[in-house]
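Quick one:
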Amino acid sequence: MKQLVLLGGGYGNMRVLLRLLPNQLPEDIQITLIDRNPYHCLKTEYYALAAGTISDQHIRVTFPEHPRLSIKYGEVTNIDIENKRVYLNDQEAVSFDDLIIGLGCEDKYHNVPGADEFTYSIQTIDRSRSAYQALNNLGANSVVGIIGGGLSGVELASELSESRPDLRVKLFDRGKHILSMFPERLSNYVENWFHSHGVEVISSANITRVEDKTVYNHDEPVACDVIVWTAGIQPSKIVRDLEVEKDAQGRVVLTKQHNLPNNEHVYVVGDCASLPHAPSAQLAEGQAEQIVQVLLNRWNGEEPPAEFPPIKLKGVLGSLGKKQGFGLLADRPLMGRVPRLLKSGILWMYRYHKG
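Output:
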């Protein structure tokens, strides 16, 4: 019996399971999924968990069940590619014939002193829970500093401002406009929404250091009762420590079949993979579809496709509280209630149909 081992129960590996189970998995293949949580987490909704507007249970999706799927709960400590073994904290090592690494990302602090120690994060469910406790224990008129005006920072700031209008939310961003990856008129729409809801947007920010309850912007101190970091990501440390070829962002360079250039049995999916788009749940799922095709071909003794068509991304949707939103669909900007309704519908589909 060959062993396919999946590291991480994120969007990419969930799509692998959805495609292989229940009927596409060859009889001689056993799957082992390794994750530190006993459920898949809807990472795109961590901002709402931290803001306290949804419950923990709302963002859990159960893993599928199958006679040849086993799930191990634990923390991956090392990957020995040469000897085909994955090491876990306080558990026996797991051997593999094929491996898909989907360990996700961590915050990137850009060497800002104190950022790791004195800020909260929404990169994992555990850290989002910690942010929730800190934010929801704040009294009226407390100041929340959010560092980073990308999608995560904007969604957290808007959710907090709507659910806790008694708080003073400051959003720091290094660009002239927040959401720099979107068209300027969409950024202006979001900034106007923030202005009408009392969120202070601090553009052209340069965070030089962070201390306990203090952000230094251009070396000028700004007092904050809670500081949340949403200003960049990097691959997980396990992947950063792998001695394999990586790109300038530290993501693993892959062949067109998504495996290591010198090893057709080790694949990387999601945030840790070097791909021509920014990391996203959509991208991980699209990549997973292609990995499944490659695996099925190789398991059947067939050559996989020499290359795949580019992964098509349908767009990006973001929330501005519970009633408004923004997004890009087929490069068309959307603003108002429609993108918020679309995002809610997609989330419902994912929760109840597992993608």
